[in-house]
Amino acid sequence: MKTEDFPISGNVLEKWINHNKTTIIRSDGDKTKRYIYINLSMVRLQTAWIMPKILFALGMAEQSGAKVIAVTWHPNADLKRLFDSYGIALISLEETCRKDVKSFLFAGLKTMGIMFHGGSGEKLKKLKLDNIPVGCAIYEDILRTSDLSTIYNVFNFTCVKKIFHLLWMHYSLNRYLTNHPPVFCVSDDLAYHEGMQLALFHSHGAGIRNVSGSGMGKVEFDEHLRTVRWHYMDYQYCHEHIHEVDDNGVMATEKYLEERFQGKNGRNIDKGAFAGKKVWSREDGIRELSLDPAKKNIVIMAHTFTDAVFNYGDIYFRDYYDWTEQTLRIAGSINDVNWILKPHPTRRAYHESKDSIENMYEKYKKDNIFILSDEVSAESIKNIADAIITIGGNAGAEFACFGIPAVIVGTPYYKGFGYTLEPKSFDQYESCLKKMCKIKPLNDEQVIKAKKVFYLQNIRKKEGPYDDFNDEFANILGGGYTKMLDEMAIDYFEKNDGTMKYNDEITIAACKYLLENDYRKTAFYQAGKLAEDF
C-alpha cells in the first residue's frame, strides 16, 4: 500500500514531536463521541499548510470538548506519531476503504452502471450519490491527477479507476462518519474530491471552515449541495461593496497594475507572464504576427485545462478545454477579425502536456488565427487587443481598466457591472463572437467602475467571507511558505521533490516561536475557539 509523502528530515520531525510532548495540553476528548475532522486528503504535507489546521482544530476542541481526527489518503507511521503528539487521531482513507468490503461492492456496481448508461463526460458531471453531487468533483479530480485535459467519455482505464476509487472512498467515508459523527470539518479546498467530501460532511450536520496559513472562510453550499466556490463569494463581495470605493481606490488600482505589468507583485509563477519580457506596441503586434491592420484584434485568453475547471460556476461548455476548442472552431468561421490565442502562462504548472494548447492551435489555425508566444509580455495585450474572450479569468478585469471589453461565460468577481459582454447560452456566445468586428472600447464611466471592482478584489483587505490571519506566528508560516512557493515555482505545484528543505526551515522557525510563546495565543487557535458552528 502506498504511504503518504511527508517530506521532512527525521531529526526535525523528532524535535517537532518532542516539542509537542512538552507543550501541548492533551485532552481525552468528548465523552459523547463527537468529532472534529481535519481533512488533509488533498493537502501536501507541508508544515505551513497543516499546522494552521491543527491549531485551529485544537482551539475548537478546547471550546467544544470534541475529539479531533485527521484524515489522509495513505497511511504514514511518522505522520501518525506527529498527530499522536498533538493528541489527534489519524485515519487513512486507503486503509478505511480496504476494510470496507460492502463499500467496495457498491462502488463497483455504481461504476458499472455509469459505463452501462453511456459514460459521457457530461453525464459524469451530473452524477449524484444520495443527493450529493459527486460527478463534478470526480471530473475535476481526473483532470488534475492524470494526463487528460478533457473527458469526452469515461471508457478508458484512467477514468474507470479514478471513478471507482472515489466512489469507494465516498461510500466508506459515509459509513465511517455515521459511526463517528462529525460536528465540524477543517478543510483546505472547495474543488476536486474534497468538494464531494465536504458535501458529505455537511450532510452529516458538520460545520465547515476552509483554513489556510493566511486566513479562513466559512464553507457554504448551494441548493444542489455543491460548495460555493471563492469566485462566487468574491462576486457577491464586490457587488455589495462597490459603492464604498472612492478615487483613492481608483488610483491604487492604477499603481498596482503598473507594477503588475512590470512583474513587481503577485506570485513568482504569475510574475513570469510579465517580468523581463518584451512589450509589443500595436504596430509591433501587427508586424510580428502579420495581422491585418484593418481588422479588430480579439484575444482569446486560454485557461489552464486541468485546474478546478468548475470554479466559475455552471457554464454551457463541458470544461476549459471544450470552451477553448469550441471558441477556436467558431473563430475559424469568422474572417472579419484577427483572432489571437494567448496560452495561460502557468499551464505547465498543471501538467498541460498531452492535448496542449499548442496542439489545439495547430489543429484549428487559419489565416486569421494567431498565437501569442510566451516570450511576449502579457502587458502587450493592452496595446494590441480590441476585446478579449475568457471564461472568467482575471485578465477580463485587468484589461477592462484600460478600456478593453471582455466576453465572459462564467461568474467571475467582475460579472454584472455593465462593462462585460455576458452571453447566456452557446447560441448567444456564437452570435456575440460573430459581432466582434463591431466591438467598441469601454467608455470612461465603465473604466472607472472596472478599476473600482479590481481594487475590491485585488487590493482592498476583505472583511468576510475570508478572514485574514496576521499575527506574528501566521507571518512566520506565511513568510516561509511564500519563499518556498517563489523559489520552487512550477515544481511546487506538481511534486514534493525539494520541499524537505523548506519544511525543515519552517518547522524549526515555528517550533522556536512556540517554545517562547503559548500556542493557545496564536490566531489559528483563537479562531478555532471563537468558531460558532457547533
Written account of the structure:
The protein is α/β, with parallel strands linked by helices and 534 residues long. It folds into three domains: 37-98 and 462-534, no CATH class; 101-168; 248-458, 3-Layer(aba) Sandwich (Rossmann fold), CATH 3.40.50. 48% of the residues lie in helices and 11% in strands. It contains 23 helices and 15 strands. Strands 3-2-1-6-7-8-15 form a seven-stranded mixed sheet, sandwiched between helices. Strands 11-10-9-12-13-14 form a six-stranded parallel sheet. It has a two-stranded antiparallel ribbon with strand order 4-5. Helix 17 links the parallel strand 12 (387-390) and strand 13. Helix 20 runs antiparallel to helix 22 (500-516). The longest helix has 23 residues, at 157-179. It is globular.
Give a quick summary of the entry.
With 534 residues, this protein is an alpha/beta fold. It has 23 helices and 15 strands.
CATH superfamily (homologous) name of the largest domain? Glycogen Phosphorylase B
The counted number of beta strands is 15
Query: How many distinct folded domains?
Result: 3
**Rg for CA atoms:** 24 Å
Oligomeric state, counting identical vs distinct chains = single chain
Q: What does the main sheet amount to?
A: 7 strands, mixed
* CATH fold topology of the largest domain: Rossmann fold
Uncertain ranges: none
CATH architecture assignment name of the largest domain:
3-Layer(aba) Sandwich
Structural class: alpha/beta
Overall geometric form = globular
Count of alpha and pi helical runs: 23
Give the CATH level 1 class of the largest domain: Alpha Beta
